[in-house]
Design goal:
Number of helices: 26
Order of helices and strands: HHHHHHHHHHHHHHHHHHHHHHHHHH
Strand content: under 5%
CATH superfamily of one domain: Ankyrin repeat-containing domain
Organism: Riptortus pedestris
Protein name: Ankyrin 2,3/unc44
CATH topology of one domain: Serine Threonine Protein Phosphatase 5, Tetratricopeptide repeat
InterPro entries: Ankyrin_rpt, Ankyrin_rpt-contain_sf
Distance between the termini: 110 Å
Shape: elongated
Largest sheet: none
Helix content: 55-70%
Keywords: ANK repeat, Repeat, Signal
Bound molecules: 2-acetamido-2-deoxy-beta-D-glucopyranose
Pfam family, one: Ank_4
CATH architecture of one domain: Alpha Horseshoe
């Protein structure tokens, strides 16, 4: 059994060597009264090593083989030391990862492919090694020093290993085996795991890894955490018919109608993507079929993004084609929002082109009011009446004039709008110009009137 003194001496020797070799020295090396994270970390690593006789003797054999401290002059020497350390302690059934990570940081003070290469080419991680590391990372509560770049490199190596051996990325592997804490630690400061912006909780929910799912929630990952598309873990659980996972998430206050930053619910998102499985699953989990986002329901989203099958599914589940929002139906909102595809799909599902909103306005009134000539043109092509009148007998031209839509006034007149139409109080489109002191609009209409 080697004595404590010897270990400390060895550790100090390594620190000394590292500074002569041009690696950054550890903080607090000068034995200051304040113990730095690094020094603390080293202390712990050393006492950790001390408790494992056989591993240490192996380690020592390797370090003391060459009495010359120049032994550890370059990265290759560090690799040798690190690898031999890993190999020897593997026999003990555990990795002294604190210490190894410290050495890694010394050998590779910044993120480098060289580190990954070293492991790839010179060392073969076995399944127990991977498990060891993940267990180790998850079991530690007290340490505070694993540099991000070391974690990143470690991640790459583990990812490579699990891909090779188990045909899945380390995240899936680790969560499947229940090493949720280790995975969280392995990600370091990162909270997402792929280009979709999924969190660990998404992966656990998507794959029905219940143990990890529970642990991650206990670890404080917000139950309705969203990826880039705004999808929550519950979305994934519902989509994949993982009922237990879905129930568990809901029991932890997950909201099946959780909204993204644009106010869309999970079902809106599924509708927009045409994600049929998700829509079915979400509805079964209790999602509101007619969830309202400023009058735009999931059915609206499906119409807008031309998801016709989705429209059928939603209608089959009771979605309302005539959903009322402040007196307007979806087709009126679509006309006012220039959502041509949505209008087209509503018509396809047999909404009337002259459907009436509150005040008896038709879609073309709304398009005219918003100055959307292309929408006006589209509605006319679908049989809309250019002179249709609302409850106060105003035509689309009245609306365009009132709202100062110059181009639309011109367009409507050019396409047969009646410049002499009068509303319930006898006012013509020209009179509308009065309302907002629109002198330019008045002049425009007067000049049009003269021509007629
Ligand atoms: C893990 O490995 C796979 C396959 O090699 C790769 O596609 C994926 O991007 C890797 N993951 C990360 C986070 O690097
Ligand atoms: C990672 O997080 C730690 C603790 O919150 C912080 O001190 C460190 O600067 C972060 N590192 C990076 C690279 O963002
Ligand atoms: C309305 O949508 C059409 C395409 O359908 C587009 O060309 C036009 O620029 C849009 N109009 C406005 C005002 O955004
Ligand atoms: C235009 O509106 C006026 C007033 O309502 C009506 O007398 C006239 O017949 C309309 N003209 C056309 C072409 O519809």
């Amino acid at each position: 059994m080697v004595e404590r003194r010897t270990f400390l001496a060895a550790a100090v020797a390594i620190l000394a060597i590292s500074s002569t070799a041009g690696f950054p020295a550890a903080d607090g090396e000068e034995s200051g009264s304040k113990s730095s994270p690094n020094e603390d970390f080293l202390e712990k690593a050393v006492s950790n090593i001390e408790s494992k006789g056989s591993a240490i003797s192996e380690f020592f054999k390797e370090v003391s083989k060459d009495k010359d401290p120049e032994h550890l002059k370059n990265i290759a020497d560090y690799d040798k030391l690190i690898l031999s350390l890993i190999y020897s302690i593997r026999e003990d059934g555990s990795l002294f990862t604190d210490f190894i990570l410290l050495l890694l940081d010394k050998a590779y003070p910044a993120k480098s492919d060289a580190f990954t290469e070293t492991f790839k080419n010179k060392f073969t991680f076995t399944e127990p090694d991977v498990i060891n590391v993940l267990q180790y990372l998850g079991s530690r509560k007290d340490y505070h020093y694993i540099p991000e770049h070391v974690l990143e490199s470690l991640f790459d190596v583990l990812n490579m290993t699990t891909e090779e051996k188990f045909n899945k990325p380390v995240i899936e592997y680790g969560l499947e085996k229940g090493y949720a804490k280790g995975m969280k630690r392995l990600l370091g400061n990162k909270t997402t795991v792929n280009e979709k912006g999924d969190s660990l909780l998404h992966v656990a929910a998507e794959n029905d890894y219940m143990d990890s799912l529970k642990t991650l929630i206990d670890e404080g990952i917000p139950v309705d955490v969203k990826n880039k598309l705004g999808q929550t873990p519950l979305y994934y659980a519902a989509k994949n018919e993982h009922n237990d996972a879905a129930k568990y998430l809901i029991s932890k206050k997950a909201d099946v109608d959780s909204r993204d930053e644009d106010g869309d619910t999970q079902l809106h998102i599924a509708a927009k993507l045409g994600d049929m499985e998700a829509a079915q699953g979400l509805i079964e989990a209790g999602a509101r079929v007619d969830a309202d986002n400023e009058g735009q329901t999931p059915l609206y989203r499906a119409a807008q993004y031309d998801q016709k099958n989705m429209m059928s599914v939603l209608l089959g589940n009771g979605a309302n084609l005539h959903f009322n929002h402040n007196g307007k139906e979806p087709i009126h909102i679509a006309a006012a929002s220039n959502h041509t595809t949505a209008v087209e799909n509503f018509l396809r599902f047999e909404v009337k082109v002259d459907a009436r909103s509150q005040d008896e306005m038709t879609p073309i009134h709304w398009a005219a009011r918003s100055g959307l000539n292309q929408m006006v043109e589209f509605l006319l092509s679908k049989g809309a009446d250019i002179n249709s009148v609302g409850s106060i007998k105003r035509t689309p031209l009245h609306e365009a004039a009132y709202w100062a839509q110059y181009d639309t006034v011109k367009y409507l007149v050019a396409h047969g709008a009646n410049i002499s139409a009068v509303d319930y109080s006898g006012q013509k489109p020209t009179d509308m110009a009065r309302y907002n002191d629109q002198y330019a609009m008045r002049d425009l209409l007067k000049s049009i009137e003269k021509k007629h």
